[in-house]
Amino acid sequence: MTDASLRYPGFYVVGRAIREHRIARGMSLRQLARLIDTNPSLLSSWETGERRIPAVPLGWVLGLLEVPPAECHLLSRLHAESERASYVEYVDPGIISLQRAYDRYTLHTYEWAPRIVPDLLQTFDYAHALPGARTTQPDEVDQEIFARRVRQVDRHPQHRHTLLLGSAALTLEGIPPEVVQAQLQEISNPANRRRVDTRIVPAEAPTAPTIEPFVIYETAEKALTVVLKHEHSTVYLSDLTTVKRYKSTFDALQQKAIAYEPTASC
Q1: Which tens digit of pLDDT belongs to each residue from 108-165?
Q2: Between the N and C ends of the chain, which has fewer C-beta atoms within 10 Å?
Q3: What's the mean pLDDT when you consider all of the chain?
Q4: For residue 51, how many other CB atoms are within 10 A of its CB?
Q5: Can you count the helices (H) and strands (E) in the chain?
Q6: CATH class entry, domain 87-259
Q7: For 21, what's the count of Cα atoms within 13 Å in the CB-facing half-sphere?
Q8: What is the strand order of the sheet 224-229 is part of?
Q9: pLDDT for the residue numbered 133
Q10: 152-167: buried (b, 16+ CB within 10 Å) or exposed (e) per residue?
């Protein structure tokens, strides 16, 4: 694996998508390489993220593999940004976030959520009880939750999610305690524990209350991307210095975290 692919995990995410769609179509590496008139070893290097696939062959590959239009658009956008160590995506309700590709094609998510259960893991009752949901039509909230569930299903079967919750998330103001308790029990049920390891970071942990939420995505090749969500934008950071700092912060929080037990008092 080259240094470039470790610096730019977008290379790897696009390549993994190509590989998974090729396998789903029952097509060998040599067959696809022959169809696009290229060397199988070069195609392999695109799939593993060792090299960045040029835009034109990417279009041919996505077309030959009959990748759905929405995902084609998503992967093309990610490809356009994949050679940059950092980039900003502005929130647009009509466009699927690039984070969807990271959700689907990476193998580990590390998430620090100091004040609220992350959206992908929220139950219907919890999502409806959030302060922001009170000004939104119930049907819109339900549609958003459904879309999140689809993202969960899309994840690789081997994907693992390490979630660190701040203690403030256990007593979120305005949400009935029974709703919070049911939410945490849902996260911690045996079916979810196989893919989501949830731990609680006590408020007294040094600096924990001041650290803003962040997500780190890790590829099978141990390349990392840090994702920071803001009100109107999402920032993706992949330069080695930044990701090492965020991973060190996550590791320090994890050392202070305790296992959540559903029967324990919140």
Answers
A1: 999 999 988 888 788 888 888 887 655 555 666 666 666 666 666 667 778 899 999 9
A2: C
A3: 84
A4: 17
A5: 12, 8
A6: alpha beta
A7: 22
A8: 86-90, 233-237, 224-229, 214-218, 108-113, 160-166, 196-201, 258-259
A9: 58
A10: eeebeeebebbbbbbb
Please tell me the predicted confidence (pLDDT) of residue 250: 96
Tell me which DSSP letter residue 38 carries.
Answer: -
Confidence of residue 168 (pLDDT cuts 50, 70, 90): confident
8 Å CB contact between 46 and 53: yes
Percentage with pLDDT > 90 across the chain? 38
Q: Are 238 and 226 in contact (CB under 8 A)?
A: yes
Q: What is the SS3 string spanning 114-153?
A: CCCCCHHHCCHHHHHHCHHHHHCCHHHHHHHHHHHHHHHH
**Is the CA virtual torsion 70, 76, 80, 83 positive or negative?**
positive
The CATH number of domain 3-83, selected from 1.10.260.40, 3.40.50.720, 1.20.120.1080, 3.50.50.60? 1.10.260.40
Cα–chain center distance at 61: 24
